[in-house]
Structure prediction request, 283 residues.
Amino acid sequence: MKLNILCIGDIVGRPGRRIVAEKLKRLVKELSIDCVIANAENAAGGSGLTPQIYDKLLRYGVNLITLGDHTFRKRDIIKTLEIADNIARPANLSEFAAGRGVGVYKTNKGPTVAVVSLIGRLFMKPADCPYNAIDRILPQLQRQADIIIVDFHAEATSEKVAMGYHLDGRVSLCFGTHTHVETADERILSKGTAYITDIGMTGAYDSVLGRGAESVLKAFRTQMPVPFEIATGDVKMNAVLVTVDSNTKKAERIERIKIDAESREEPGYDSDDGKPEYFNNNF
Prediction:
């Protein structure tokens, strides 16, 4: 059975959420998408996720949510992480961290899709070995899910490419997130795993990774904490569409998707974002 899976790049703030709300359901219908995965670790005010936004994303049509280094930025998401089975924080965090490293969704066609979230170690905060973590998870997960996908939330391209080769033939798709810049290296590896180093960002592209350029420049130039307001210009959704054969577990196609917003997002604060925060060169 062929399944079409859409993976949406890091959703940044209200502009990113708005384009998902506007475009996703129609896209699912037009492209016959069976499962939607979205990285939402920047969905609340540019850093973290709240329960309210988690609920909104599900209403918009997202089936599985992955997180990254900002997983616990909004503390009120912890209860959701502990009870929901469709949201995954990095599996190679401490074994005592709240939540689980795997999200699971049963498609309307029948096959079950599982997504594993991993976090990189190069230029990132300390974490356990992502290679050991996925090796530990896969044997059991292969008995539970028909299709396995990995979101590798990492900074270094070399670390992401290496993970792709490590997983080739063992998962259907390995995609990268975190850098917010879409790469042009989508391909199917020799043993049938679809791969792309980074699927990009869903948010304002007239920006520095979704944040206002002036505030980011000020932070870099002064080395002082500066509030990174969410940019609103040139909003786009970046994603990849992957077709997988649920019988062979192999990917048959991977295609980059970029969609423009219909209307300009107006600046403003959404209470669902949680409290505004200060960042010092921390995206």
